[in-house]
Design goal:
This protein is mainly beta. It contains three helices and 15 strands. The termini are far apart.
Length: 245
């Protein structure tokens, strides 16, 4: 995607200056690809399983922060994010690909200390590994959902130091629509995962994953991004956010 000589830092800084609406739900259009900031991915509008969607393909080149599609008019600190997602390993993906798909939030622009202009300095993310949901391996099933905080808190570090406290099981399936809801408030997050095929608002009454200590703190704020991992083809639809002061 052409950048037209505008850096990620400049765009994210401008977005951060736009105040979030208070408790007003906003539907975020996923067909205006020319207004999105696309990092390490390709995007296109698509029809997937009978639904209009945004297709995001992550490719197979290594990237520590994954792939991001940063959305306009999505600035928030606390609030809720809801979206339908479907993820699966892409063509030619590596053997450990899991179809990683989720949502990043609290994106911050590169620091003045020399961070690359092509990537954010920080963000938090909640995502799922769809191929783990129905596999006949309990250990992999335990690693369906995941919280990370880029760049310091990777899934590898969490799994090593925190005994998988930032992961949990959810009933998801490869390449099937799943409804995600993320509630963010006062430095905490709750991830709700609807069942496969439960797109368009199917939210369980209890959260699937609890994060009681968001690593960027209770005052972090910034735009939202669609997130996909290495070797993934993902689809997104029906995105809405409800910022709260």
């Amino acid at each position: 995607m052409a950048w037209k000589q505008v850096t990620v830092a400049a765009i994210l800084t401008v977005l951060a200056l736009v105040p979030a609406a208070r408790a007003q739900t906003r539907n975020i259009a996923l067909d205006a690809t020319d207004k999105m900031i696309v990092l390490k991915a390709t995007v296109a509008t698509d029809i997937f399983k009978g639904r209009k969607a945004l297709r995001v393909e992550g490719g197979n080149d290594e990237s520590l922060f994954g792939r991001l599609v940063i959305l306009p008019n999505s600035e928030m600190r606390d609030g809720s994010i809801e979206v339908d997602v479907a993820g699966e390993p892409g063509p030619g993906s590596f053997s450990e690909a899991r179809g990683y798909v989720g949502v990043a939030f609290h994106l911050a622009p590169p620091s003045a200390s020399g961070a690359a202009q092509s990537e954010p300095a920080q963000f938090e993310c909640l995502y799922i590994r769809p191929t783990n949901g129905r596999v006949q391996d309990q250990v992999r099933r335990n690693h369906v959902t995941q919280y990370i905080s880029y760049p310091e808190w990777t899934w590898q570090r969490f799994r090593k130091e925190e005994n998988s406290r930032y992961e949990s099981y959810a009933d998801v399936d490869t390449g099937e629509w799943v409804h995600l809801k993320i509630e963010i408030e006062n430095g905490k997050a709750r991830l709700y995962v609807g069942s496969p095929g439960g797109a368009g608002g199917s939210v369980p009454t209890q959260p699937t994953l609890l994060v009681n200590d968001l690593k960027m703190g209770s005052q972090a704020r910034g735009p939202i991004a669609l997130w996909v991992g290495l070797g993934t083809v993902a689809h997104f639809a029906n995105l809405k956010i409800t910022p709260r002061s």
